Amino acid sequence: TAKVHVVAPVEFGDAQEVGDLVKASSPVILNLQMSDRDLARRMIDFCSGLTYALSGSMEKVAEHVFLLTPSNVEVSAEERMRLQERGLYRA
């Protein structure tokens, strides 16, 4: 189990931070709630390719919020509850 990092991108350059975290076996919440539509689309495309290439997974966990999980990592129930309290996860 691992602590989830939250990334709320403001520009496409923030994709590198997401990629570096996932490559380092850290799960990431990609919060696109405040991102403009074009940036959100580009980030989703990038992250879906990233997780596919690394045999990870990407799931929508709230409106405009995605959980990227590396293949060898599990997000604990406690961590999911913490994210839910912040409005970043819907059970």
User: Strand count, sense and closure of the main sheet?
Assistant: 4 strands, mixed
Structural class: alpha+beta
Sheet-strand content, in percent, reads 15-25%
| Coarse morphology | globular
Element pattern in H and E: EHEHEEH
Distance between the termini: 18 Å
Q: Order the strands across the largest sheet as they lie in space.
A: 1-2-4-3
Number of strands: 4
Count of DSSP helices? 3
Low-confidence stretches: none
Percent in helix: 25-40%
Please state the average pLDDT score: 95
What gyration radius follows from the Cα positions, in whole Å?
A: 12 Å
Would you mind describing this structure in some detail?
The chain has 91 residues and is an alpha+beta fold. It has 3 helices and 4 strands. Strands 1-2-4-3 form a 4-stranded mixed sheet. The longest helix is centred in the middle third of the chain and has 17 residues.
What's the SSE blueprint?
Elements: E1 5-7, H1 15-23, E2 28-31, H2 37-53, E3 57-62, E4 65-69, H3 77-85
Parallel strand pairs: 1-2
Antiparallel strand pairs: 2-4, 3-4
Output the keywords:
single chain, alpha+beta, globular, 4-stranded mixed beta sheet, 91 residues, 38% helix
How would you briefly describe this protein structure?
This protein has 91 residues and is of the alpha+beta class. It contains 3 helices and 4 strands; from the N terminus they run E-H-E-H-E-E-H.
